[in-house]
Amino acid sequence: MMRTWFGRLFGALAGLAALWGAPAAAQAPVQAKPALWKLADKDTTIYLFGTFHLLPPGLAWRTPAFDKALAGSDALVMEIKDIDDPAKLAAPLLRLGFTPGLPPLVERVPANKREALKAMIVESEIPEAALDRMETWTAGLMLAGVTYKRLGLDPNAGVERSLIGAWKASGKPVEGLETAEQQFGFFDALPEEAQRKFLVALLDDPAEAKAQFAAMLQAWEKGDVAGIARTFDDETQVSPELRAVLMAKRNANWADWLKARMAKPGTLFVAVGAGHLAGADSVQAMLKARGLKVTRLQ
After folding, report:
1. Do the domain assignments include residue 29?
2. Dist CA 168 CA 174 (whole Å)
3. Contact call for residues 202 and 35 (beta carbons, < 8 A)
4. How far apart are CA 166 and CA 269, in angstroms?
């Protein structure tokens, strides 16, 4: 049972910027064309690709430009290195995500949301007593899997999951911008009020969440960076703390990492959630502020 829970949790972690809903399976376009950028100097090239963590089945999104950049890269860099190994999440989760003496989970949401939360708990098949021992953010990540299930999506069917297996089989290295413990830590550092807002957001009207997420997917398919910024901003406004911690702070950290990595020769392919590569506090904006130029390729 614990392995099942960790698998669901990892699916949630893979979509940190998109935890508040998921699109129903839709008619796939002939060919999606997500945005791709390049950061380069005389001996170093870093490609930046904005991923979508959950996708409807059958969506064609790889392009010749994407495949050429990926094939020519020496290493693949993702948000977390071991995204395909849920077992490696167990230790940091147990350290950070469980606290004795917490109030029951249903008491951590407003009274008018409790029936919806109880229904989600039943559907999750996670014992309520286990959720009661979890911090609010941990329970929210676990229960996010119910949203995917309701809308017919598999957390495994996303860009990262489609890349990692084949890349590891090639023998080329995989690197991570963060560790699982760091990602758990972002949530763990949130004030309890922000954690509860996150949990309550999971209980919003499924139809509204579906429409919002569908708009995000459509913008990503078109490489519409302005559209991505608008839709992701709508989602993360659920809490200013979430926006600051999950997006702005991480983007600044990643920009520092990228700037430092430019001092080493070679070619990297960096694949992170598309929301991080759009908007006023995007990774590209952070790089520009650090004196680096990013060129859009697709």
Report:
1. no
2. 7
3. no
4. 14
Do residues 25 and 214 touch, judged by C-beta distance below 8 A?
no
**70 within a domain of the structure (yes/no):** yes
The domain in which residue 286 lies consists of 2-21+35-296
Residue 83, sorted as left (phi over 0), alpha (psi -120 to 50) or beta, turns out to be alpha
- Pairwise CA distance, residues 162 & 60, whole Å: 12
Q: Which residues contact 126 (CB under 8 A, 6 or more apart)?
A: 5, 142, 143
pTM of the model as a whole: 0.84
Q: What is the pLDDT of residues 12-48, one digit of tens each?
A: 444 443 333 334 444 444 589 999 999 999 999 999 9
Query: Which residues, including other chains, have CB under 8 Å from residue 121's CB and lie 6 or more apart?
Result: 105, 106, 128, 131, 143
**Cα–Cα distance for residue pair 282/288, rounded to 1 Å:** 10
241-256: per-residue pLDDT in tens? 677 777 888 999 999 9
Beta-bridge partners for 215: none
Listed in sequence order, the residues at least 6 apart from 209 whose beta carbon sits closer than 8 Å to its beta carbon are: 20, 21, 22, 147
Domain count for the chain, please give it. Answer: 1
Is residue 10 a contact partner of residue 145, using CB atoms and an 8 Å limit? Answer: no
Residue 28 covered by a domain: no
Cα gap 289→56, rounded to integer Å: 36
* Alpha helix segments (H runs only) across the chain: 2-13, 64-71, 90-96, 114-124, 128-132, 136-150, 159-169, 180-188, 192-201, 206-222, 225-236, 240-243, 249-261, 283-289
CA 246 – CA 240 distance, rounded (Å): 10
Give me the sign of the Cα torsion angle 88, 90, 94, 97. positive
The verdict on residue 26 lying in a domain is no
